[in-house]
Amino acid sequence: MAIIAISRQVAALGDEIATAVAEKLGYKFITRKEIEKRIVDLGFPEEKLKKYDERKPGFFASLVKDRDEYLDYLQTAVLDAASEGNCVLIGRGSYAILEELENLVSLRFVARDKLRIERLQKEFDWTEKQAIQRIDESDANRKGFHKSFFNMDVDDPSHFIMVMNTGLLDVESAANMIVSIVKGYITPEKEEAGKKKLEQLLQCQHLVNKLIFEYKLNIEFLRAVMEDGVITLQGIADSSVLVERALKISSVEFPNYTIKSAISVVQDFKPYS
Fold this sequence. Notes:
Elements lengths: L2 E6 L5 H12 L2 E3 L1 H11 L16 H5 L2 H18 L3 E4 L3 H4 L6 E7 L2 H12 L3 H23 L11 E4 L5 H15 L2 H27 L5 E8 L2 E8 L2 H14 L4 E8 L8
Parallel strand pairs: 1-3, 1-4, 2-3, 4-5, 7-8
Antiparallel strand pairs: 6-7
Helix pairs in contact: 1-8, 2-4, 4-9, 6-7
């Protein structure tokens, strides 16, 4: 089971190469639209999606609780999709959400601005000014999205196994290169380790969702980390009572694990209006 996660600049042939790779490997191509559908199916209101459409939340959007809820739904959707195995995911920070998996092949596609401008002009019959405006807007939004939600610089190549310049490679050549990397890089041992880690990430995310959405615990930035039979809760709460309740619920949900808290208690912590 290998998982390919793709990040791309606008007009860098990301969708075209992802489609070709999925076809060559016989993998499922999980598009941005598919992830959006999964997020809505999980319960996030469709009308709120546009606020977080691979862009940095505006000032007020970043302050409201919707922002953290969106991230929980997004992570659940991506983890659920990845658990189906042998898939190609594109966009929505999938490479960041899945970065701990040993069976992950994370890729980024880029191209020079001049070429991206030409591609957009040809595809949409735009003027040069329109194409430049679209590129500037998209680059800023995607950079802001990754910084806001994952505290990561999407332009940092160290997050990826490979960054490909699609101005130097056509779709077919790029797809063939990626297929070779997947077949040579993903070993049975990496597949097994990745599968185990993905199961842990899913269990932790489902616990977070239960605490936040079912039990309505107002713990901000809540995260659960599972390692060596221990689940550690992280986040910020405004009272120790909330922390104790979270620990009690988690112990019931995971009776075979030791539950610990790394939740910071900050009196009168009220980040949301």
